[in-house]
Amino acid sequence: MRTQLAIKTNAFLENYFPERRVFLKSDNDTRFIRLRPGTQVVALAGSSLLVAWAIIATAVILMDSIGSGNFREQAKRDQRTYQARLNDLSYQRDTRAEEALAAQERFNAALAQISVMQSELLNSETHRRELETGIEVIQSTLRDTMKDREIARSQVAQLQSEDGGAVQIAANTAPMDFLADALARTAKERDQVILDSQDALLVADELNQKIALMQEQNDAIFRQLEEAMTVSVAPLDRMFRAAGMPTNQMLETVRRGYSGQGGPLTPLSFTTRGEQPTTDTLRANRLLNQMDRLNLYRLAASKAPFANPVKDSFRFTSKFGFRRDPKTGGRRMHSGVDFAAGLGTPLYATADGVVTHAGWGSGYGRLVKIQHEFGIETRYAHMSKMRVKVGQRVSRGDRIGDMGASGRVTGVHLHYEVRVGGKAVNPMIYIKAANDVF
Question: DSSP assignment of 262-310, as one string?
């Protein structure tokens, strides 16, 4: 039964794959190889499988290439968006700083005007009190004079009733005229004092209205500055907290580094000249403290690794954490992130600091280490060229080397690490925290 099935199968295959012979001729002999139908079918199937595998592999490679190109384009667009947001934030920060400076100047001018008006108001009040005192003195003098006049009239009436009164009347005529003139002058001075006092009251009312208007303007300036400070400080505070950095301790560290008298971080304050501080004075000092805090945040942001070490187009090829070792295939800890780009791509410092290592680092290859504030260290490995030296102070954005493939690698890339207190942490914590703000 099995023989018959084999015969039928062979006969069926001979219709499509007839038996062929391949002759091999040499100088002394001629041989041939018989290709049966089954052998031809197996060879055809193997060839078909090989062609199919080549087609599928080519398609996979093309799809990966297209996907990598799309990812690079997306990364480039994200990079441009990040730069645009960073530039926009810098512009807004400069604009807010200019607005704060202009508002502070207006506030100082308003305080000076208020001080002048208060002095004028005090002078006017003093003058008014002096006038009131003068009026009281004049009224007292007038009463005494009127009393003397009544006494003199009584004496005149008594003299007229007596003999020889004409002589005495003539003798008292001069004092009576003098007394009448004194009364007239006193009445005139009293009327003038009353007019001056009324004018002083009007001037005091005008000054009070001007002071009230000035206080309303100052309140509007205060509100604008307080809103600007809130909008500027809150995102920076969230950025540092997202990176796990204690803000109060961090700002105190920065303040100690910039504590010189007269330096850029010396807090301003308004004096009360020994008097109880007013509401505006307390409000102004709170605002100046917020401006000082914003300046400290700005300095702290340049000292922590919130920037990206690669500014050109790149692709993330490995993240932080446990992964399969590309060399051995085993599972091991990857203490940084990998950025893949072209050979010689510029690499930049992600924060201000001092270079503590610039040389060969075993599996790291050409390695640069930078020590930053707050116990933070960054590492840049597998470089093709280093552009800094040990002891050199660098700022965020300074070029420190070129991307390469030195050390234990499978291709051109940058291995980037962030260590806090000697312990490796995920660098994307800082980069993502900055992206959420900028």
Answer: TSTTPPP----TTSPPPHHHHHHHHHHHHHHHHHHHHHHHHHS--S-S-
CA dist., res. 337 & res. 353, Å (int): 20
Q: At 86, list the tokens.
A: 């960073």
Kindly state the greatest CA–CA separation across the chain. 199
Q: What is the dihedral of CA 296, 302, 304, 309, to 10 degrees?
A: 170
pLDDT of residue 366: 95
Q: What is this structure's pTM?
A: 0.47
Mean pLDDT lowest for which of 15-29, 56-70, 166-180, 419-433? 166-180
CA distance 161 to 159: 5
Look-up of token digits 């597998």: 382
Extract the tokens encoding 363.
């599996």
Rounded Cα distance between 108 and 50, Å, is 85
Question: How does pLDDT run across 412-435, given as a tens digit for each residue?
Answer: 999 999 998 889 999 988 888 776
